Amino acid sequence: MASSSHLALLLLLLLTLTLATVAKEGKAVTTASRKKIYIFRVDHRSKPSIFPTHSHWYASPAFAGGGEPLPLLHVYDTVFHGFSTSLQPDRAAELARHSAVLAVFEDRLRRLHTTRSPQFLGLRTQVGLWSDSDYGSDVIVGVLDTGIWPERRSFSDRNLGPVPSRWRGACETGPGFPASLCNHKLIGARYFSQGHDSNAALGGAGINDTVEFRSPRDADGHGTHTASTAAGRHVFHASMANYAAGIAKGVAPKARIAVYKVCWKSAGCLDSDILAGFDRAVADGVDVISVSIGSGDGVAAPYYLDPIAVGSYGAVSKGVFVSSSAGNDGPSPMSVTNLAPWLTTVGAGTIDRSFPAKVVLGDGRRLAGVSLYSGKPLAGTMLPLVYPGQSGGLSASLCMENSLDPKLVKGKIVICDRGSSPRVAKGMVVKEAGGAAMILANGNSNGEGLVGDAHVLPACSVGSDEGDAIKAYVSSAANPTATMAFEGTVVGVKPAPVVASFSGRGPNGLSPEFLKPDLIAPGVNILAAWTDAVGPTGLDSDGRKTEFNILSGTSMACPHVSGAAALLKSAHPGWSPAAIRSAMMTTANLIDNRPQPITDESTGGAATPLDFGAGHLNLDRAMDPGLVYDLGDQDYVAFLCALGYGPKAIQVITHAPASCPAKRPAAENLNYPSISVAFDGTAAAGGRAQRKTVLRTVTNVGAKAEAVYKAKVDVVGKGVAVTVRPGKLAFTAGAKKRSFAVTVTATGEGNGADGGLGHGYLTWSDGTHEVRSPIVVSRIQPL
């Protein structure tokens, strides 16, 4: 199983590379004749001096080889040098042979990875990181998303000081968005539609102006939710229809927000616009970028063909921390997205708050579920219960549009299987067919992982086991009936956190030499601000209005880490993005609130680093990590050399010419806070022992310059041994950095699922700090 899934992934990567690579070798980009949008990565040093700017050069007949000047959509100058344009494929292939062009790739569509959580991260009002960082008041968080609904109380600038003097951004105006909506909290707002507009002009899908605002205003809600999660102000009497009532606040309540609308409700997110958002955000002067966007096609492109990886490298190389979502395709192995080592990739966990509901069957059984339904309750009324999948086939079992027979479901509680369409859309299908209520049943892939939804009719989500029990009751009872009870909000739920079943999982399918995701953060049932453009379900037909909404996804986890980075940046302005990530990872929690090891929602068993990376974010400890694993441009270049990338491929990512040493570096030696060792599965035949040694360097950032740390190793798994040399690190004022070697030995014993051999933890301790790194040991099958 492990080798076949890995092989399939590699074959898909090769296919992607074959189709997207371009033209450096004279290959046609595609055989189609219709114009497409392409992104050109250009060596900016090649600009002739007669052109005052790169824009003038790109738009000149000289760059076009004497032909028609190129119709430029975006020009990239900060995180990326180049432009996007619409061309016929043969013309794109011709321009790809230009001596200054490093790479060309076709524009791709990406998707969004769609209160109480700050306290759950260990933040306390009077002491700790909130007070030490003044709630992040001097830090600017850039949010690449669907825009913002600026009138929300979460974006009030009451009692905030002046805008940081280094800010170079703007408040772009448009329909429904005058410049006056920006303030000392929302200090910048821009929108990017050129990619979609060009796509529409070429006959593709474009922006639907009947449901969109051609301005930074948010027609979708996702961007408003993520922005307020990262940096929303304290808002009293917050709730979603009385669910999760209390004080809502972002992780960094005083941080400034700049929004970059790169995603559109009707059209998604195009790479060309995402890159433009990165480019502008860094030029404007943001300190943190939050990007809850990722690929939705299951293919991990090489880093130099991934615009999010390229754009984020340009940001990180200029000192900007970039947080990204891990994707919602879990719990399958290798489902994590946003894999670049300079990105901080965030999975999702639960918090200690839930919205319980009960399904009561006609035979008296009461089955637990969750719901955010806020309309007229069933009040104990027993209604007929039906499962359309018994007779209507797969489409009816999933309650897809136009799949339900009104004669079958009218006035009844309808059981719908989860999957293939949005959960809330299934409720609308049931309602339009005349159904009275809905039970949404998980399948095996989701297990017992539940998220609440603000359904348009009485509805309750139940786990796989409960769903099977209800279906069995329907098939066996002569006249099956049921009702529902909605029980509001419960806090103090145990266990929490739990790794969400949907959260993207490791191992890293592109570079198994380091671990992804990096860590998890709250991402289930998160209360945050919402747009007035749509109701809480996000469906066009939902006319309800709400100031706050409750959503789940790694999209919700990512801004928690973005806000955390803002606080750490404020408390430690000299720390690099890698140091900030290291502080979060090495202090993350492995224990839940029982206290027991964190569990996996999809299995009910103990979670591993492949599920949660380094663990669950704990900001109370991250402020003072003791030691950090730092990284800079040269470290990343060495890593790219280790992957076998050539100078031009590396320059696509780093902007600067690069040369690799004659002896290829070891990718495992990237100075990452986690350790992943992948052995050759073929060489393990016959039970021969295998051994690898990886190198790491730590920097003392503790209050005491004189410190001694001792190593401790804990290993889970049969047939794996780990040693550390030296076992003790002594730091002084003149020796803030120390290096060590970790040797992993694997025997032929104990080959777990998906090639996993085992995992463990290396912890450095000085008696005050515990600096912990996860270790993952696996086998892969080469092609």
TrEMBL record:
Catalytic residues of the enzyme: 145, 222, 555
Residues of the Inhibitor I9 domain: 38-113
Residues annotated as domain Subtilisin-like protease fibronectin type-III: 669-777
Keyword annotations of the record: Glycoprotein, Hydrolase, Protease, Serine protease, Signal
N-terminal signal peptide: 1-20
Superkingdom field: Eukaryota
Pfam families referenced in this protein's UniProt entry, alphabetically: fn3_6, Inhibitor_I9, PA, Peptidase_S8
Biological processes per GO annotation: proteolysis
Domain Peptidase S8/S53: 136-599
Presence of the UniProt keyword Hydrolase in the record: yes
GO molecular function list: serine-type endopeptidase activity
Domain PA: 383-470
PROSITE patterns: SUBTILASE, SUBTILASE_SER
Alphabetical list of SUPFAM superfamilies matching this protein: PA domain, Subtilisin-like
Family the UniProt entry places it in: Belongs to the peptidase S8 family.
Protein name listed in UniProt: Subtilisin-like protease SBT1.6
Organism of this sequence: Phoenix dactylifera (Date palm)
Gene: LOC103700878
